[in-house]
Amino acid sequence: MRAGIPRAALISDSPFTAAGLSPDGILLVATDRGAKALGILPEHRAAATDPAIAS
Fold this sequence. Notes:
single chain; 3-stranded antiparallel beta sheet; alpha+beta
């Protein structure tokens, strides 16, 4: 894949009601059933921590 193109999808069995991304890379998503915060790593950090991403 080319650099700079998103490589993930967020799927839920409930409709999303809100979402936001902090400058620190925390993605907050909310559905009718609750909310979740996910840490988003820059591509170079993700490759360094997960060998499967590096290839």
